[in-house]
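Lab channel / #folding
Pinned by the channel admin:
"Please post every new chain as: sequence first, then the structure tokens as a reply. Keep commentary short and put observations after the output so the thread stays searchable."

First post following the new format, from NK:
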Amino acid sequence: MTNIPTDDGPWLVVGLGNPGPDYAGNRHNAGFMVVDLLAQRAGARLKSHRSRADVAEVRLAGARAVLARPLSFMNLSGGPVTAVRGFYKIEPARIIVVHDELDIPFGTVRLKQGGGDNGHNGLRSITSSLGTRDYLRVRVGVGRPPGRMDAAAFVLRDFGTAERRDLPLLLEHAADSVEMLITHGLEPTQNRYHALL
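Reply from TO:
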């Protein structure tokens, strides 16, 4: 069982983050960074779309895909995601949301389908707007905040100096996992990336 949808419609790959240069290097913008990398690989440029998202139509691993970065700020991501989904007529099973994850160590990538939002306001907004949790998630580990630092403050800070050295590899792994998810389905991709430490 590979969990690959049977029709040949496009995939929607959504990277979560906050728009604008002040947020560009934040941990919370890991999803934006992965979608930017996928666009770069495809030789595409994300452009403003009426859905309140930057969008690019590309081919990923030979499959049709729409890359999107909501421009509504993290907590209101659901509106643009639902608008892009409606415009391109994409079923929830073909939506992949790429986001930062506090409960995963920095440098690791984990994948799942459905489940709760684990306090992530972007996921909460998407689930509410779509009316379903049954979409795929690529979770980019950013680790827990040090000491008693508030989690919300931590994710709105840039990656640290040591993290920035390893960030390109993390983003490559996350982008690779999106492509493998499209071609091989959830379980084989989990087996591949959950084995990486």
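NK: The longest helix spans residues 161-184.
TO: also worth noting, The two ends are 25 Å apart (CA to CA).
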